[in-house]
Design a protein that fits this description.
The complex is a heterotrimer of chains A (100), B (368) and C (463). By secondary structure, chain A is mainly beta. Chain A has one domain: 2Fe-2S iron-sulphur cluster binding domain, sarcosine oxidase, alpha subunit, N-terminal domain (Ubiquitin-like (UB roll), Roll), CATH 3.10.20. Chain A contains two helices and eight strands. Chain A has helices spanning 4-7, 33-39, and strands at 16-20, 23-27, 46-47, 54-55, 68-71, 74-78, 89-91, 93-94. The longest helix of chain A is centred in the middle third of the chain and has 7 residues, at 33-39. The longest helix of chain B is centred in the first third of the chain and has 20 residues, at 46-65. Helices cover 30% and strands 23% of the residues of chain C. Chain C is built from 14 helices and 22 strands. The longest helix of chain C is centred in the last third of the chain and has 20 residues, at 344-363. The chains are: A mainly beta (100), B alpha+beta (368), C alpha/beta (463). Chain B binds chain C through residues 24-27, 31, 137-138, 141-142, 144-145, 151, 153-154, 212-216, 252, 254, 257, 269-270, 272, 275-276, 279-280, 282-283, 289-298, and chain C through 89, 91, 100, 108, 280, 282, 384, 394, 397-402, 404-405, 408-409, 411, 414-416, 418, 438-441, 444-448, 450-453.
Chain lengths: 100, 368, 463
C-alpha cells in the first residue's frame, strides 16, 4: 500500500507518545499537532462557540484558525503550526478555549 | 448614529424624512465606536443633562430593539489607582449624584466583587449602574430601518440649495437634487464641511481614537471599566496624544480596549505606539489580558467642538438648517436625546431639556 | 541592523535574497515556517528524515539551486535565515524599518529586526467559496491537503474528492493519489473549452499538463470538468459530496446531481495574495495586489514586493520577480541607478509569465453562479458562524452594500481569521467587489507583547 512516508522515503526516528484528552497517541518527530492527529485518524478537535460544531484542519497553513487546539494548557494554538514534543498534552477545546 | 436617531424621532413626530449618506450605514465614526451610553464620564452641566435624557430614551428603545442592537445595561466602574485619586473620584461622584446620576462608591473588596480580574491592590472606585452599551452599527441600521424613512446611501451632498432670501430649499447631491424645507446636519466629524455648504461656520474638528479588539473570551470583564484619568482626558483640550485605559467585554465575546485621543487631522495611518500605550494601560488594569491576543485595531475620528458640547438645533443664520453634530466621543449615547431635541425643534414643541447650551451659532463671533 | 529584510522564504523571497546577497547586501530572511520553501516548496519536517522529498514536488532542480544558494555559496555575507518568525507588523520610521515578529510556535515573545529596506514576499493563500456542508471536518482546502502532505507526510483520509477550480487542483489530486489516497474524482468548474480558448497563452505555463493527464489516468482519477460540488454531507464529519454538472453559463444543470462517497474533500477556487503588511505600510494596492513598478518597487520608498502578493502567478513568476527585486535593491541601497539590461532575461520571463497568469485567471474563474447553491443556513464566516441568510438580511434589509458594513452588521470577518477566508464570499453575496481589508496586525499579537514598549533586543548578528 502506498503511504506518504513511503512516497517520500521517510525514515523518521522512533515515534513518541503524546496525549489527546489523556488518551495516548503516537507522534513522529517533526510532526505538527494536526499531522499527528490526522495520522491517528482524528479529524476534529474543537467545537465552535456558537453552535458547538466540530472543526479541524481547513487551510493547513495557519491562515484560517479553524484548527485551534489547547496544547499543554495553552488554548487557541493552531494545530497546523505547532510541532509536538514527547509528553505533550493535547486537549480538545470548546467555545473560546478559555475557562468561564 | 445621530442621523439615524434624528430620522427615527422626526419620522415618529409625523414628518416626512429622507436619510442621505455619502457612504454606507454607520460608515463614519459610528462604525469605529464602542457604543458608549455613558453618564459616568460627564461632569454636571448641559452634556450630563443630555446624557441622562438620552439614557432614558435608549432604555425605551431597548425595549423595542433589545438584542438586535446588543443593548446591555451593564454599568460602568471607574477605578482609582491611588488613595488621592480615589478621594478626587468620590468628590466628582458626589457632584454627579446631586445632578441625578446614580454613583455608588466601591471600596477595595467590593471592587473585586464587581470585577474579579482587576489588578490587585487597587484602592477602590465608583460604580455607575446607568452606563450602558449598544453595538453602534447595528443600532444605527435598526433605527434607520424602523424610522421608515427613505434611505439613500452612497449619495454625496454637494451643495445646500437656498431660496433668494437665504432659507433652505433642499440639497444638491451627486445623484440629483432633493427638495425639502429643512435639513438636519448629522454629518458628524464632517459636519463643518456641510455647514460650509450652507454658508455658515461650525468648527468641528477630528480627534482621532484607536480601539483594540481581542480574541473572543468568556465574560471576564463585566462592566465598562476605566481609569479615573479618563475623565480628565475627555475634557482636555490638548492636541497631543493622550491615552487612558478603557476596557469592556462585549456580548459577542471580544474585549474592546480604548481610549486614545489625538488631534492629527484625518490621518488614517496606523500607529503602533498608540496601540502599545492602549495595551499597556489595559494590562495594568487587567493583568490576565497580557496573554490574550489582540486581533485587530481600528481608528475613528471623534467630531470635536472647541467647548466639548455638540451643536444641536436650528441655525438662526440659515432658516431651515438644523445641526446635530459635534458629539465628540459620545455620539452614540447622546444620539437619542439629540434626535428628541431635533424632532421637538422641527415640530415647534417644547423639548424635555433646555437646548440653549447647544446653540449652533455660539462660535460665530470667534475669528476663523 | 541589516541592509535588507526579506519577509517570506518562498520562491520570490529566496530569489531576491540570493540576488541581493550576491551583490554585497546583508540580508535577513524572516519566515514563519521551520524550513525554507514557502508553500510551493514546502519541505517535510526535518525530523521525518525524508530521502525523497522530490517525490512531492515539481521543478525540484530550481529548489535545489535556491536551497544551495541559501546554504551559503557565492555571497560575501551569508544570508541570515530567521525561521519560526511570525511577522505581525512592519514599522517605518526615519531611519528605516522595524520588522516585528513573534517567535516560535509559542508566539509569546516578539523580536525586532531593523533594516534599511524591506522586500515583501508574503505569498498567498487559497480562496474557497462556501457551499452547504463546507464546515464539516474532512473538508479541507486543496492547498491545505497539499501542505499537510508535503510538510507532515500525512493525508486526511482514505477516499478524497478534489474540487473547485484552478491549476492547483491537478497536482493536489495526483499528489494525494501518489500518497495512497483513492481520489474518487477531480471536479473542475472550468470546461475543457475554457482551457482551449486560453490555450495559446497557457503554453509554457502548463508544460506538465500532459503529464498530469497521464498521471490522473494512471491513478484512475475521474476528471469531471464543468462540474461543481453542491453539497457536502455528514453529521460530525464528511461522508460524501453531491456533485452536479454546470451549463455553459455556470449554472447547475438540474437533474445532473450525483452522490460520491468520500471522507475527504479538498477544495479551492484560486488564490488570494497576502497584502496586510503592505497595506499597513501605506503601499498603494491595485485591486487586491500590491502595486509595483518595473523594478518591483512599491510606492513607499524602501519597500519592494515580489511574488503572489503582487499578483497571483505561480512559482516561476515569483522567482523572476524576486530576482529583479533583489538586483534593484542591491543597486538602490548603494545609491546607484540599476541597469535593467542586467536582468533582461528575468524581465522577459516576467512578461511572459504574467501573460499566462492572466490567461489562467480567465480560464479558471470562480463558478459564475456559486451563490445560487448557498442556502440561507450555510455558514459564510466560519469563525463567527455567520450564515448566508444573515449576510443577505444585512444587504437586503439593513442597507449594507459593502464588505465592511456587512462585517459591522453581522460580525462576518471579525473572527480569528479576520475575514481572510469569508471575504470573497461576503463580497459575492453583497454584490460588490472584494477590496483589501485593513489589518494592522498581520496575525494576532498577545497584549502583553504590545504592552512592552520595546521588543526583545534586536536579533543577534543583525546589529
Amino acid at each position: 500500500m502506498r503511504t506518504p512516508l513511503k512516497l517520500a522515503d521517510a525514515h523518521p526516528g522512533p515515534a513518541f507518545p503524546v496525549t489527546l484528552d489523556g488518551r495516548e497517541i503516537e507522534a513522529l518527530p517533526g510532526q505538527t499537532v494536526a499531522a499527528a492527529l490526522w495520522a491517528a485518524g482524528v479529524t476534529s478537535w474543537r467545537t465552535t462557540r456558537g453552535e458547538g460544531r466540530p472543526r479541524g484542519v481547513f487551510c493547513g497553513i495557519g491562515v484560517c484558525f479553524d484548527c485551534l487546539v489547547t496544547v499543554n494548557d495553552r488554548p487557541n494554538q493552531r494545530a497546523c503550526l505547532v510541532p509536538l514534543h514527547p509528553g505533550d498534552a493535547i486537549r480538545t477545546q470548546e467555545g473560546t478555549g478559555h475557562d468561564d | 448614529m445621530v442621523g439615524a436617531a434624528c430620522a427615527l424621532y422626526t419620522a415618529r413626530a409625523g414628518l416626512d424624512v429622507i436619510l442621505v449618506d455619502r457612504g454606507p450605514v454607520a460608515g463614519g465614526t459610528t462604525g469605529a465606536g464602542e457604543g458608549n451610553i455613558l453618564v459616568s464620564d460627564k461632569e454636571p452641566g448641559p452634556e450630563l443633562d443630555l446624557a441622562l435624557l438620552s439614557g432614558r430614551l435608549w432604555g425605551e428603545l431597548a425595549r423595542e430593539f433589545g438584542a438586535a442592537v446588543e443593548y446591555e445595561a451593564k454599568g460602568g466602574v471607574v477605578v482609582a489607582s491611588s488613595p488621592d485619586g480615589l478621594a478626587a473620584l468620590e468628590r466628582f461622584a458626589e457632584e454627579q449624584r446631586a445632578a441625578g446620576v446614580v454613583a455608588e462608591p466601591v471600596a477595595d473588596d467590593a471592587l473585586y466583587d464587581l470585577e474579579a480580574h482587576l489588578a490587585p491592590g487597587l484602592p477602590g472606585g465608583v460604580h455607575y449602574p446607568q452606563d450602558c452599551q449598544v453595538m453602534p452599527a447595528l443600532a444605527a441600521a435598526h433605527l434607520a430601518r424602523a424610522s421608515g424613512t427613505r434611505l439613500f446611501t452612497g449619495r454625496t451632498v454637494t451643495d445646500v440649495l437656498r431660496t433668494p432670501d437665504g432659507a433652505v430649499r433642499g440639497v444638491r447631491t451627486d445623484k440629483g437634487d432633493i427638495h425639502t424645507p429643512a435639513i438636519v446636519n448629522a454629518a458628524g466629524t464632517w459636519g463643518g464641511e456641510l455647514a460650509a455648504l450652507a454658508g455658515v461656520r461650525l468648527p468641528v474638528l477630528p480627534r482621532r481614537g484607536f480601539v483594540l479588539v481581542t480574541e473572543p473570551l468568556p465574560r471576564l470583564v463585566r462592566h465598562k471599566v476605566y481609569a479615573a484619568d479618563y475623565v480628565a482626558d475627555v475634557a482636555s483640550d490638548s492636541a497631543a496624544l493622550q491615552t487612558s485605559p478603557v476596557v469592556e467585554g462585549t456580548a459577542a465575546g471580544p474585549i474592546l480596549i480604548g481610549a486614545s485621543r489625538e488631534r492629527v487631522g484625518f490621518d488614517r495611518t496606523f500607529s503602533l505606539p498608540v496601540v502599545r500605550a492602549l495595551a499597556a494601560g489595559a494590562t495594568r488594569l487587567f493583568p490576565f489580558l497580557a496573554d490574550v491576543h489582540a486581533m485587530r485595531a481600528y481608528l475613528g475620528f471623534r467630531p470635536y467642538l472647541p467647548d466639548h458640547l455638540p451643536a444641536i438645533g436650528p441655525d438662526p443664520r440659515v432658516p431651515g438648517l438644523y445641526h446635530a453634530c459635534g458629539h465628540e466621543g459620545a455620539g452614540i449615547g447622546l444620539a437619542t436625546g439629540t434626535g428628541h431635541l431635533i424632532a421637538r425643534a422641527l415640530t415647534a414643541k417644547t423639548p424635555d431639556l433646555d437646548p440653549t447650551p447647544f446653540r449652533p451659532d455660539r462660535f460665530a463671533e470667534e475669528a476663523v | 541592523m541589516t541592509d535588507l529584510a526579506v519577509i517570506g522564504a518562498g520562491p520570490a523571497g529566496l530569489a531576491a535574497a540570493l540576488a541581493a546577497a550576491a551583490r554585497g547586501v546583508r540580508v535577513a530572511i524572516v519566515d514563519s515556517a521551520t524550513e525554507a520553501g514557502g508553500q510551493f516548496y514546502r519541505q517535510p519536517a526535518s525530523g521525518l528524515r525524508s530521502r525523497r522529498p522530490q517525490a512531492l514536488h515539481h521543478q525540484w532542480r530550481t529548489w535545489e539551486r535556491l536551497r544551495d544558494g541559501l546554504a551559503g555559496s557565492g555571497a560575501r555575507f551569508a544570508v541570515q535565515f530567521l525561521t519560526e518568525h511570525h511577522v505581525w507588523s512592519v514599522e517605518r520610521d526615519s531611519d528605516g524599518f522595524t520588522v516585528h515578529a513573534l517567535l516560535g510556535p509559542e508566539q509569546r515573545e516578539s523580536v525586532a529586526v531593523r533594516a534599511d529596506a524591506v522586500l515583501l514576499a508574503t505569498g498567498g493563500y487559497e480562496r474557497v467559496l462556501p457551499f452547504p456542508g463546507w464546515t464539516l471536518p474532512g473538508v479541507v482546502t486543496a492547498g491545505g491537503a497539499q501542505a499537510m502532505l508535503k510538510g507532515g507526510l500525512v493525508v486526511p483520509g482514505r477516499t478524497a474528492v478534489v474540487a473547485g477550480t484552478g491549476p492547483l487542483l491537478l497536482p493536489v489530486a495526483t499528489g494525494l493519489a501518489a500518497a495512497g489516497v483513492e481520489v474518487a474524482a477531480l471536479v473542475e468548474a472550468a470546461g475543457p473549452k475554457d482551457l482551449v480558448r486560453h490555450g495559446r497563452a497557457l503554453v509554457g505555463k502548463l508544460p506538465e499538463g500532459a503529464g498530469y493527464a497521464a498521471r490522473l489516468l494512471r491513478h484512475r482519477v475521474r476528471l469531471l470538468s464543468r462540474h461543481t460540488v453542491v453539497r457536502a454531507h455528514g453529521d460530525d464529519r464528511l461522508t460524501g459530496v453531491t456533485v452536479a454538472a454546470l451549463d455553459t453559463r455556470g449554472r447547475v444543470r438540474p437533474g445532473t446531481e450525483r452522490y460520491l462517497p468520500c471522507d475527504t474533500l479538498a477544495v479551492g477556487h484560486g488564490m488570494l495574495p497576502h497584502t496586510d503588511l503592505a497595506e499597513t505600510l501605506g503601499c498603494r494596492l491595485d485591486g487586491l495586489t500590491v502595486a509595483v513598478d518595473d523594478e518591483q518597487r512599491t510606492d513607499v520608498p524602501g519597500v519592494w514586493a515580489a511574488g503572489e502578493s503582487t499578483g497571483i502567478g505561480g512559482a516561476a513568476l515569483a522567482l523572476a520577480e524576486g530576482h529583479i527585486a533583489g538586483r534593484s535593491i542591491a543597486a538602490r541601497l548603494r545609491g546607484s541607478e540599476p541597469d535593467p539590461a542586467q536582468w533582461a532575461s528575468a524581465a522577459k520571463a516576467r512578461t511572459r509569465l504574467r501573460k499566462s497568469a492572466a490567461a489562467l485567471d480567465a480560464a479558471y474563474p470562480p463558478p459564475a453562479h456559486w451563490s445560487d447553491q448557498v442556502t440561507d443556513d450555510t455558514l459564510v464566516c466560519r469563525c463567527e458562524e455567520v450564515t448566508a441568510g444573515a449576510v443577505r438580511e444585512a444587504v437586503d434589509e439593513l442597507g449594507a452594500g459593502d464588505v465592511r458594513t456587512v462585517k459591522l452588521l453581522t460580525r462576518a470577518g471579525m473572527g480569528w481569521c479576520q475575514g481572510r477566508v469569508c471575504g470573497p464570499a461576503v463580497a459575492g453575496l453583497a454584490g460588490c467587489e472584494l477590496t483589501p481589508s485593513r489589518r494592522p496586525f498581520a496575525r494576532p499579537v498577545p497584549l502583553g507583547v504590545l504592552a512592552r514598549q520595546h521588543d526583545m533586543a534586536t536579533e543577534k548578528g543583525t546589529s
